[in-house]
Amino acid sequence: MSDRYSFIRSDLAQLAAYQPHPGGKVDYPLDRLDTNEVSLDLPSEIKEKLAWIYQQQIEANRYPDGSHLSLKQAIAAYVTESASLTNPINPEQISVGNGSDELIRSLLIATCLNGEGSILVANPTFSMYAILAKTLGINTIAVNRKEDDWAIDLEAAQQAIDTANNPAVKAVFIVHPNSPTGNALTTEELNWLRSLPENILVVIDEAYFEFSQTSVVAELAEHPNWVVLRTFSKAFRLAAHRVGYAIATPQLITILEKIRLPYNLPSFSQTAALVTLQQRELILPFVKEILAERAKMTAILTKNEYFRVWQSQANFIYLKLKNINFETAEQQLSQLTQSLKTQGTLIRHTGGGLRITIGTKAENSRTIERLEKLIVAR
Ligand SMILES: *Cc1c(COP(=O)(O)O)cnc(C)c1O
Q1: Peptide bond between residue 124 and the one before it cis (omega within 30 degrees of 0)
Q2: Global pTM?
């Protein structure tokens, strides 16, 4: 960076802006199976209702509701119902963000800024934790997962917590089920998280809850240092509107509310989240079809002699190449991803493997067909 911009923090110079779709835009239609959205747009009756609300009720000249109250009430009721909780989650236990990305950033600011803490992650995992930490000058400690089932190397994780002191680990970020590998937390992993002291924040990101139906929300009451993150970007098909939420104790939620921007969520996004919650019986049944497609794809890809495929609890599949030269594996995965893109299928090459979102039936059969041809021709 030239002297002219010497006012910019020096640690940002090495940082490149996040590219959601590495490799850039193309001018032909693509099956976009690289970012784990649902491939189906909202039902048209919901879109029509949203358009009507925009026309009749939303005042474009007014700031949005900065309290998010009606949305928080609806989310609290949904969380309570979806986990069959006997003790309901209250609206005071919910904070709403501009995507869960905003909440991740707020949690980082609340715990680790000013050199007060490091975060711990287990790779391969959601890249946004380390990226956002870096933009804030926060140190990330990464431990590995064991390749047979992608469970966290708990010994290494415990050791990082016991020994890191410059600065110490203040927050642990875990995805449940994990992305890109699709595995849900095991009892052993859960027991480890339960054993962590209350002076460490435990963030459990349940972005794929609607697919896995596994949740720790029932345990929040016993663990005041836990936060659960959820999003409307995946099963609720609202990625365009950027709505995520955190569930935690009222005390932790108060901290998140202090940190967020006052009008972080546009009126239209709040409305969209509210309406999809109210009409979820029109949206969520599609999850079943995705799970059926996932089973089909997993079975087909597992039979292929070139692929090592893991069972997934989410709306994507993770695989690696089998029986190949380890030295050139990364290069071969890159080439495969690039060739697939040329043929019209976008997938994600990450963590030493390929992550493929489950799309529509037609998208999935094209993916299988293209992958199987490419792997033989390689
Ligand atoms: C997709 C995803 C999210 C969602 O992020 P938003 O900002 O809400 O769109 C969060 N966490 C993980 C692990 C994800 O895969």
Answers
A1: yes
A2: 0.97
